[in-house]
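Board notes (copied after class):
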Amino acid sequence: MTEPDTSSMIEAQGLSKVFGTFAALQDVSFSVPRGQVAAFLGPNGAGKSTALRILTGYLTPTAGVARIAGRDVSRHRIEAAARIGYLPENGPLYPEMTPLELLRFFGEARGLTRARLEARIEAVVEQCNLEAVLEKSIYKLSKGYRQRLGMAQVLLHEPDILIMDEPTSGLDPNQIREVRELIRKLGQTRTVLLSTHILQEVEAVADHVILIHEGRIVFDGTPGEMAGGGSLDEAFYRLTGRNGQEALEPEGSAPEPHGRTPSEAEVPSAAQEPTPEAKETEE
């Protein structure tokens, strides 16, 4: 009997990211093996989006290495990008286009041949239930349809790794259910890492939990191990030190970093990276 391939498809090794004097990530390490749906869980402002942007090549880490399918993202960004389908929160869509025009644009940008592109458009339109809005302008679409369109363009080139940042953000209950069902289905044949702060999302789709708090990993295991015989809610509050209460500091304020903060020499120049004000938008 052939054993399943459990090689690591997504790997963070000692990732740190500093914006000015603010440490958004501090020595973050985790891996997601092939064929697993992993939830990257944490409170708002914990560092989730920063980590995903490093894994997908949109940000350069101050220290550490991000690998996709064994490839160092910093050194082999194009090869890594070919393996990834990335859906950022509120992903960019061109509102003056129709969904069909957008999918053709992205497919051509990725170098798909005409025949393969048309076949893939047909497949993702059916997979994401976009038939009813295919010829409508994107600015006329609901939030739910825009999210489905974002998912369709992520799947267009048939990536074996999917990275999604808050994929159900802003959706109504019916739309959330549809997106979660799609994620579960995709997880049967792909490696999926999805960022969320919603515990119901973890229970609905994930078989692996990576919990980050104030830029550090505080748990890495299964949902059952995290719950420890209790509930995920109780475990979340315990591991993030909130004891069931919301944090006292206002959203967007910088938490006090723990441990070593990279030195000034390690901080990228302003011409390469966001200004310190960018920390307010990082999760």
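Comment from the instructor: Residues 114-127 form the longest helix (14 residues). The chain has one domain: 8-281.
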